[in-house]
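Morning - uridine-diphosphate-N-acetylglucosamine inputs below, output right after.
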Amino acid sequence: MIRIEGGRPLRGTVRAAGSKNAALPAIMASLLTPEPVVLENIPHLLDVECALDLARALGKSVAWENSTAVLAGGKELAGEAPAELVGRMRASFLALGPVLARRGEAAMPLPGGCALGPRPVDLHLAGLRRLGAEFEVRGGTIFARARRLRGTTVYLDFPSVGATEQLLLAGALAQGETTVVNPAREPEVVDLGVLLTRMGAPVTWHEDRVTVRGRPELGGARHRVIPDRIEAGTYLLAGAITRGEVTVEGARPDHLDALLAKLLDAGAEVEAAEGSVSVRLRRRPEAVHVQTLPYPGFPTDLQPPIVAFLTTAQGRSTARETVFPARFSYVAALTRMGAQLQVSGDTLFADGVEALRGAPVEAPDIRAGAALVLAALAAEETTEIRGEEHLARGYEDLVGKLRTLGAEVCAAP
Ligand code: UD1
């Protein structure tokens, strides 16, 4: 349990960790080669541990010290991923493309992950099918086969982050070029492209598509993953909701444009320099309207945190969720804390209140958990948040970093 005594303005500087969502596909990319892949800026998170466990289970040797992970070996990869690891985290499903490309066959249990409504993998499978894979589903496991993947053009109905990454990973070992039309352009996908290029499969971006040139074999590489824009955004919102001033060092302001625009609209002062972003807010924020969209639109992962912030704005804010239909799981908990929220279809209405109050609440997933932490930091009195394991999936040293900013927070049994 995390216990927070709220009502203190947060002030100071924290360092952005490496991006979780860039680290996970980078770890999966190491499956494409037996040569060493050295990944720097890898955050200490449960989801990263899970991805490294999966890499080990598939035959890689893994050394992880400080924030550098070295993945090597695995001349012969195992053909089947353990259901327990794939069930724990949806991103494990990204191992399918690399294992299939290396072995010509793969068995992959259907994925788990956050409770964010139905999160199908149909786009991953339809794309791999275009590259020549065949699938059969038996007992909750997908059995995939492809004698040799062949590059082609794949159109995505929706710019799915995971499906774009899956196709870049598989395409890197396919024969010829693989082009994804309507790809996801999240910085984490671009970062995977940088790593694949370093490993020998050049990835090039065009206005409406991305192409990877496949190679029969890939080499090792050294790569530093980008800073975590979602973590950075969460701390900036923590500064704003507590009417304080927070600087996130190591953050990329160009990855945070949508959030910073909304913070400015709300009345915050924003300072962005190369490698650092600061936000200051002294008064009650103005209501704003947010709509989640694929990048560079407002990130769905910051929707729960920004709604927490807007619960104390002046007037009625709205948040429309277009990426994940079931992402309002935190509403009941924030309501217990005094927020006035209503959901109608894909839109949430927040009528700002003067103040929130502490209550015992439970985090249903990573970003909903972050929303509860933000609300607790601003609330009068004490909030106890259960389900802290969700927070440990996505926030490195959350308690330590919040303390650095002056929060009164402790991890209690
Ligand atoms: C990734 C991120 C997650 C983020 C999301 C959107 C990782 C590990 N996770 O998740 O934090 O919230 O991007 O920015 O990087 N969909 C389908 N069929 C598919 C794939 C996706 O219908 O085959 C749907 C999903 O159900 C969802 C939407 O597309 O409604 C977005 O999913 P996607 O972009 O694939 O997100 P993830 O890669 O799962």
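Note: The two ends are 6 Å apart (CA to CA).

O.
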